[in-house]
Here is the input.
Amino acid sequence: MKVLHYPLTQITFFFVFGIVFNRYLNVEFNTGLIFLVGSFSVFIMLFLLNYRSKSIHLQKLFTVVCLILSFSIGNFSAIIGQDTNDENHYTHSENLDDFIDMKVILKERWKSTDKNIRFVADIYNVNEKYATGKILVNFRKDKSTTDFNVGMKLALHAKVYSIQKPLNPDQFDYGSFLKNKSIYGQVYVDDSSLFVFNTQEKDQYYYSAIFRNRVIENLKSSGLNQKELGVVHALILGQRQDLDPTVLQNYQHAGVIHILSVSGLHVGFVLLFLNFFLNFLPNTNLFRVFKVVFIILILWSFALVAGFSPSVVRSVTMFSFVAIGMYMRRKTYIFYTFYCSLLLILLFEPSFLFDVGFQLSYLALFFILWLQPEFEKFWKPKNKIANHLWEVLTITFAAQLGTMPLSLYYFHQFPGLFFLANLLIMFLITVIMGVGLVLVLVAFWTVIPTFIAKILEYLIWLLNFIVEKIASFESFIFKDISFDFWMMTALFLIVFAFGGFLIKQNFRTSVLLLVSILLFQISYFVFDFNSKNKNEMLVFQARNSSLILKRLGNKISVFSNDLDTVSIKTDRNIQAFNVANGTTIEEVKSIPNLLFFDSKKILILDSSAVFIPDLKPSIVIITQSPKMNFERFFSNCKPEIVIVDASNYRNVVERIRETCLQQKIPFHAVAEKGFYRIKN
Here is the structure.
């Protein structure tokens, strides 16, 4: 585990820890600045003392201070990296809850939804005042006729909607997803509420979009089938808008969805392709420098083609440093350049650390650099084809091993045939990427000849065919795996301990491996115990519907009057809850008027407004807008809390809210605040 003892490894770890520390404790600017200045001052003092004296104790103390300084730099970079700390950020603007006038520049096109065309835009003016920040702009398809493009300057009259927090437990947090991309709000506009300026922002994003649109039009004119054309757009241009939904699902089930998102994998392919192509150059210092410079220029040209999206920029930055490390021809230097790229990216964009794609890319590359050479030692095939296949397999295994804990935690599934899938398609992907990049360059200037386009089309058809066949073996796709944070952490310990044991088999690495396995077992048993011994009742947020879950251990009963059994078992919110908590649906029933949970009596008032007059319920759940005198009812029964679900009309909700306020009864509107949990 020598690589884990590199000084730069430790510095990087503490830098990252500083960012995480700020994320969850939200350290103030002045506190972070004082800590940074203090640690830097101590660092300078000890550096001067250590320079004059070679005391071992001073050297150890200096090392500790270096790590503290790294932590403080990470913490402070996270503070100043928060866009909202800027006093000119649009979130500080007046009257933000009302319709406002803003001026924006379209920067990046996102995948459209059924109703909206979506762009990420930079705000530069709000209500005639200078402003900053990113916002998600939704152009309604049914009310917009404008052809929107990157670089357009628009004047909008719209209301900024904050990104709503998850309204159900264990639901995907879309707000956090956008926050990690420095997006804190969104607007919905149509042609009547916008004005398009004649001038455009001609930056790198604009020229990238021009290049990409021209390539796409020429590729369409070459006669490529729509299904294969969509894969070309995703593989090389980073555009998934035209991707067939069935194709996308097949790639997900086969465990190779990563190849359809331009990221570290594709940039790595470009690097390997260029490195192989330039092998004919003489092995002199001059030509090696030329080789590195040429590779880096091509990598950033690829970033231009792919639209300078954050994931591509991160990957190109990462592999630019790797290319420099390869030039130095020492494994240590490759690791140092790897850490330098990580530190550089996080120094300017600390929020990237919490991006799933960023985490997976760097984990995959780290384990490829660390363990792939060790796996490769197990077999040395003499045949070139066999050697290439073995290299692909070891790279795949190292990357999959390193990212498996994180994948299980985020996606809760494991493709059992990922080895076979990657072995079959990686060589094909290499060919497609090489051919595709050349054709993209040609497509910028002219329409690709039909017979050449057909070659690319056949290669992609073959790729889709292989993926489809692998995805058809559904029994090898393990879905809905319950996996919490502590299980993920313990599994990472196993992976690192296994890597150390693989490199050097001794008593210490053996003990570490056994202890990590024991910790994983403990984390699993704790999760299983909590799953089987937790009782609760939840009122879910279901749009215009009533949905109540009663959990006894790892079994749940679902109560609803609006959804059938099939719909409930496939409901995404319930599935997310089951996966996160290790529960399964035992029964589906209609909502009764009275439920019992622990010692609590729970009255459900529906549209019939039927209840037992003398009943004194602990909790009242109101559904389907009953017509009754709430003032009299609440004064008679005096419940501990009143819960109103999403099936009620808005005016009814407001009337119940006012009544509860007058009678000082706690009130919870599920449609506004999200689900309500009743604990025993």
Notes: The chain has a mean pLDDT of 84. The first strand starts at residue 99 and ends at 110. The CA atoms of residues 28 and 615 lie 52 Å apart.
